[in-house]
Amino acid sequence: KTVYVLNGPNLNLLGMREPAIYGSATLDDVRQLCEQACQRHGLTLEFRQSNHEGELVDWIHEAGRIHAQGGLAAVVMNAAAYTHTSVALLDAVKGTGVPLVELHISNVHARESFRHHSYLAAAARAVMCGFGVAGYRLAIDAVAAW
Ligand code: DQA
Q: Where is the secretion signal located (predicted)?
């Protein structure tokens, strides 16, 4: 089965972006960590990043088609700032029925109040935050056991 790991806006800057909050690992490091975790579990990885909301919507639809054929393990999504703004991403998850893990590198609940609300959480099977980039590995380990 395939795991879609989708990353939203500004995560291409990982490693140089607010390192005190997000750490020094780059998005390519995260990709490698996800690749290793998927290999351990015999899962196929689709790892992507976009700064564009509609592109993320399209990728959820793509994952939804694989889900309909029984080939999807989960979508692990760090929607970044779109978490807190995007009804479109929520509707895409609801409309496709993909099993979603909402992931954040930082503990959003210990940060500004505008980060406390997530549109996606209502449609997520699981929500995780605050484990740093190790959260990606933990999420893949968890979905492998679903
Ligand atoms: C984030 C948290 C969001 O509030 C923020 O907008 C991000 C990254 C995280 O991984 O901690 O861009 O999703």
A: none
pTM: 0.98
Domain count for the chain, please give it: 1
> Where in the sequence is the domain holding 102, given as residue range(s)?
2-144
Which atom of ligand 1 is found nearest the CA of 8?
A: 12
Annotated ligand binding at 91? The verdict is yes
85 lines ligand 1 (CB under 6 A): no
- Angle 121-65-76 from CA coordinates, rounded to 5°: 35
Q: Is 47 helix (H, G, I), strand (E, B) or coil?
A: strand
CATH of the domain at 12: 3.40.50.9100
Listed residue (5, 30, 4, 2) closest to 15, CA to CA? 30
Whole-complex ipTM: 0.99
